[in-house]
Protein cornichon homolog 1-like isoform X1
Amino acid sequence: MVFSFVAFCYMLALVLCSALLFFAVWRIAAYDELWRESNAASDPTDCITKLERERKIEKLCRMLMKLALPEYFIHCLFCVMFLCALEWLALAVNLPLFCYHSWRFMQSPDKQSAADATHDPSTATQAEVLAYCRREGWCKLGFYLLSYFYYLYKCSGVLPRGLMLINGIGQNTTKHNQYSSTRRDQYHP
């Protein structure tokens, strides 16, 4: 099966967008867990010790740090692919989130892991930081979900068009129209 570079871009975007959807869902779950852990610290009936709670919070923050850089890289790859394929609408849709990811990366003190203040265990449990991160996670999930269906729509439109051109259908429509009009004239005077 032969297909164009545009079709390849959309198919790869579908696969990678699935990974970004997983990252977004995991991020939402992790920040929800951080929110529960920070609220449980004030609960006197909780049997988990303070040290165990701090370890759990540090573990969640480390895992969130590990997800940031791959997410930024995948989204940058989307923008480069759509730029090379001259898909301007897909690029324009992805550009604001790319700029946001670039800004977050430039703001992070540790460029190797793209860790910023939201991944620091002491900062991540603050109420306003958690609220911001949870809202960011839900917004990204919505964006990636809409992007997934847009890529699916474009992929389903690009693949059949490429296959029709390969098989020779739709290239010479004037000849087809001539024959259909003469047949029509024969039966309907």
About this structure: The chain has a mean pLDDT of 78. The helical segments are 5-40, 50-84, 88-107, 121-124, 127-167, 173-187. The chain has six helices and no strands.
